[in-house]
Design goal:
The structure holds three protein chains of three kinds.
Chain A lengths: L1 H6 L5 H8 L32 H22 L1 E5 L12 E4 L6 H8 L2 H4 L2 E6 H4 L3 H11 L1 E4 L5 H5 L4 H6 L3 E4 L17 H9 L3 E7 L1 H4 L13 E6 L11 H20 L2 H6 L16 H8 L14
Parallel strand pairs in A: 1-7, 2-5, 2-6, 3-4, 3-5
Antiparallel strand pairs in A: 6-7
Helix pairs in contact in A: 3-4, 10-12
Chain B lengths: L5 E4 L7 E4 L4 E4 L6 E4 L10 H10 L7 H4 L5 E7 L13 H16 L3 E7 L8 H8 L1 H7 L5 E3 L8 E6 L5 E5 H4 L3 E5 L11 H6 L3 H4 L5 H5 L11 H16 L2 E8 L20 H16 L2 H9 L7 E7 L1 H16 E4 L3 E7 L14 H12 L3 E2 L4 E10 L12 H13 L3 H14 L1 H9 L7 H8 L1 H6 L2 E5 L3 H6 L3 E3 L2 H12 L5 E4 L6 E4 L1
Parallel strand pairs in B: 4-19, 5-6, 5-10, 6-7, 10-11, 13-20, 14-16, 14-19, 15-20, 16-17, 17-18
Antiparallel strand pairs in B: 1-4, 2-3, 8-9, 11-12
Chain C lengths: L9 E3 L16 E6 L3 H11 L3 H8 L2 E6 L8 E10 L2 H7 L20 E6 L3 E3 L2 E3 L4 E4 L5 H4 L5 H4 L34 E4 L3 E3 L6 H4 L2 H13 L7 E5 L3 H13 L4 E6 L2 H9 L4 E4 L3 H9 L2 E3 L7 E3 L2 E6 L5 H6 L1 E9 L10 H5 L3 E4 L5 H12 L1 H8 L2 E5 L4 H9 L8 E5 L8 H9 L3
Parallel strand pairs in C: 11-12, 11-16, 12-13, 16-17, 17-18, 19-20
Antiparallel strand pairs in C: 1-3, 2-3, 4-5, 4-9, 4-20, 5-8, 6-7, 8-10, 14-15
Classes of the chains: A alpha/beta, B alpha/beta, C alpha/beta.
Amino acid sequence: MSRRASRAGLPTVRGLARGWRWGSRPLVPASAEPYRPLPAPPREFSTEWARTPAVRSLRALAQSAALKPLIWSEVSPTVSGLDHLTGLRGPVIFAANHSSHLDAPLVLCSLPPAWRHQTLVAAAADYFFDDWWRAFGTALVFGTVPLDRTGGATAAASPATPHTLLTEGWSLLFFPEGTRAPDGQMAGFKTGAARMALAAGVPIVPIGIRGSFAAMPRGRSWPVSGRPQVSVRYGAPMRPLANESAKKFTTRLAQEIRRLDSEDRSSWWSSLREPATAVPSRTDGAAPAHWRQVWASTEPVPEPGRSTPWD
Amino acid sequence: MTRPGFVLDVDDRTPPLLVHAGESLRLERFPDGTRVIYPPESLPGVDDLDATIADALENPVGSEPLRALLFAGMKLTIAFDDLSLPLPTMKPPDIRGKIIEQVLTLAAAAGVDDVELIVATALHRRMTANEIRHVVGERVFRSFWPEKKLYNFDAEDRENLSHIGLTDAGEDVEISKRAAESDLLVYVNVNMVAMDGGHKSAAIGLASYKSLKHHHNSHTMVHSRSFMDHKNSELHSSAWRMGRLLAGHLKIFQIETSLNNATFPEQYGFLSKREWEWSLRDQAMMYGASRGLDAMPGRLRRKTFQSMRSEYAVTGVTAGEVEAVHEKTLAAVHRQQLVEVDGQSDVLVFGLPFLGPYNVNSVMNPILAMCLGLGYFFNMYRGKPLVRPGGTLILYHPVPHEFSQLHHPSYVDFFEEVLAESTDPATIEAKFEKAYATDPWYTHLYRTSHAYHGVHPFYMWYWGAHAMDHLGDVIWVGADRRTTERMGFRSASTLADALEMASGSVGRSPSITYLHSPPHAIADVK
Amino acid sequence: MTERPSDPPSSRVGSRGPAVPRPSRADRVPAVELYRSVPRYLAARTLSGRLPSVAAASAAPLRLVARRPSETLPGWARVRPRLSGICGSDLATVTGRSSFYFSSLVSMPFVPGHEVVGDLLDDVDTPRGRLTAGTRVVLAPVLTCAARGVPPCAGCSSDRPTRCDSVTSGHLAPGLQTGYCADTGGGWSGELRAHGSQLFAVPESMPDEVAVLLEPLACAVHAARRAEVLPGERVLVIGAGAIGLLTLLALRALTPAAEILVAAKHPKQKTMAARFGAGQVLGSGDLVGAVRRTTRAMQLKPERGQPYLLGGVDVTLECAGSALDTALRVTRAGGRVVLSGLPTASPDLTPLWFRELSLVGAYAAGPDDFAVAIDLASGATEGALLREVLGATYPLELWRDALDHALSAGRLGAGRIAFALQSDPVAPDSRLESSKGSRP
């Protein structure tokens, strides 16, 4: 049948699959490259359904019964600083450094259930909402909402802007770096989270995550074997100072998260006095070599509370 | 933002490419290095069509505004192109109807009573009432049709033809008497390709066989290079001479329109897309459409295709003096269709679609398939043909031995009798044309039924004369061997076979060009 | 079915075996005989539409027998056939397609075959003089008053023996022709009886394969005469089998027709028609359209049925047996339609009435038709053309193959198929050998 069809020039499933490489991006012939189309504007993907009560309970079930056991079985997380949340009334913006796909589930699953059920993840519209299946899956399990990382146009146009979500009482998890750090070292922060916090008048809870880069860096789709240690450290909620600009607030946020990382390495106090950076700057002021940053990022996180007799 | 047309070089990243083959769609892997000419993407249409038309009528080029040309007591005739344009037929409302409505509104305001509307069919078949209604719109149809003030032109109605005179080259100009005796002739055209419009509108659309035979003959057609480029077309030179003579006798107000490239309705959008940009949905549509069509009974398949309505949008409306208007229209047409191509190749490939100008709501018979390929597609060039002299043309079409007795009675006989004797346009013209042109039965069917004129198949054959003269070899892929053989061509079952057959004249690794059309593209060959 | 007591005794040898029936007594001759069998007749008639070859070869009530010839009466002579053609009317009869009209004009069981060239075994007087034994003769098959020993009827006395009214009377069993009569025997056998009035000597120089066509050629001559073509008229011959080609030949030789169009179905027939001198060869696919083109008539298409012409050819000769309906539709008002073959389909007669056509029958051939035919076939050009008409010969044992071949003769590129009844067949031996070998 299909041989007959291909002889007659009719398309066959196999022919189509070979011609267009299903599952990956179609290749543009070399001579057509100058005429490559601009990326289409992200399609509007409504996530309204993902916030309906039925889906919320489904998500709660999925997170506590499937996601958390899965993550906790593949990595060994240490969660600290949750006491900062006690007495805090939502909504808030959680802001964390970002180096792995593990980060969002780690934060979500480490949150107390009451908080977790009220928290959505702001996810890159161009990545997570590019394919319907990815958009659907993440919206179902993580409650993701699309966030345009180019300039906020989509977010503004879509019915569910982060702002409205905050005013509706949802907490949001932001990764202000905008993308997973390629070397595991924290990159510059975008001001989106700070602007959102200023506009909605909500506090930002900084979160420092360490070890997730080592556990599942960019390019891996599953954590490395051996249940690597990861640490999630919540900081005290931050509110903007009087007349503080979004930029300044962002700088402060970045410092705080860096400090949390440092605190995780040493102690709260020493981190306050002299933030310990993973990779010391070079004396000539230039950025450290790439490999050193990766090296530092993949430094194993020691297991907590297991001090050796020689300490 | 629409992207321009361009020439693709097939490389190993190129997916199989869409090829039309009559009432079927194929995917073909072309050899590496094949040049594929993609037309420019469809331009956006004008925002407010009514305002654009009003503006064109109010601010014509080289003429007073239409309003000033209308006066009470005058004789006004409105002629318009028939349904052979555009292809496929436009989704209603048709642009011609929109324009005619505005012209009539102005005429009514000026107190014009004597108005007649003529479908400029020349020797084409009479359009049916429904087809005319589609073109002019319900309102115009209801006002004029029952009164017989809206009718098909009849080139055999001797009493209603008027001999205007002879051109400098001695060509008879004989057109509709009503048009010739009008105070104003308004011609409403659709300029789908560069061949249409200009003096070809009134001087050909309303002319009789006596007049048409001066340019519709094998000699003229061999020297029309191409007839998509009126400055290098003998056919158009003759029409221009006639048109200028006509303009001296008669006030003509020409309204020309140009369309974008939205040839296919939205659900067939993948047909206008570049293959490597096909989404999964497009691929599924292609798979489903082609396999589904293949499985359909022939009648249903034809119905599916013939009921396809294009979503053409108007890119420009220009009115006024014929030649000035036509220059502007051509610019708009070229903006939409022109693609620069560097040099000729040894082999040229076309995929012929299901529809040509002469089989709207009908059957594409072998002669029409030939005309579409060697006449229309081959001539879609400016400068020089896409294929070198003596090169090979490969066409995709099944060319079934299938004729519509209703629309193409003389084609049947042309195929059985004339082509059995000769396929040379000049020989055919000398030996058979007159008999067919004056055959009483064909004339009767042309005048009373919906048949093309007896001489029309000859014109189709002449249409291919330039290509036959230029080409060394014509090979049809997937065609009925008996019909192609009768027409003097060869047929192959696959592209590979066709190239194998051509290797004798163009070698084992010829340069190949594939014109990825429709939508239309005119190659500007440097 | 019981055989009539008057039937000549015949011993059945089995209709299937390849062996030549071995007569138990010396005077028995092999013959293919058509006998009365209602089931077989019905089977053949049912099958003839879709599977004519099965109808003719297996279902038809035919058998190969060793038959004792009836006694030779005074004025009669024995003829040993050399070649015996298989005619369209024979095929129609064996496949049950001919009209029941015929049933009372024949007597069963009979040996078909009326296109015969053979050797005369006895001396006999003929109206054209005495013929001696050993003369090569052809047969005018019509069994007229003279042969039946009854006083001449109106037809015979006005020298039109084809119109004889006595074909069922006299001392012979009913039978319109030799080949339909139980008493005379027929061509598809080793021997038959012929009356002197039926016999014509064949010129020495004429080969057997031309002589076997003299009977159909005489019929063609008869038809051409019946057409009464006037000078300048345009004539259409429908069918380019043997009869069509011979009619074309006769029309060209005998009539002042301005142009003769021939409608042919198969490629070989088309080339043959062209070589036989057709002014134009038309395909049979759209015959009405093709005639319209030539005559520039008006063509109308009724809501049901074939299109037809207002205008058309002046005279049409129907030589295909099944195209009378078309013939009536393509002939101009006041024109003539000649029925040359045995009609097997019933036409819509409306055009006959509306167009005031003359429908003319042309049955068999009279003595003067034979004289003209012999004359015509003796011409060098005509002789050469006629040699190509006979496509193949078969020995009697291979009668099934012969009938099968004859039914598809047009498609297989043969004009006429014949039985070769004597040991040295005229057709190339190789073909016969190979077809013999193909039988188990």
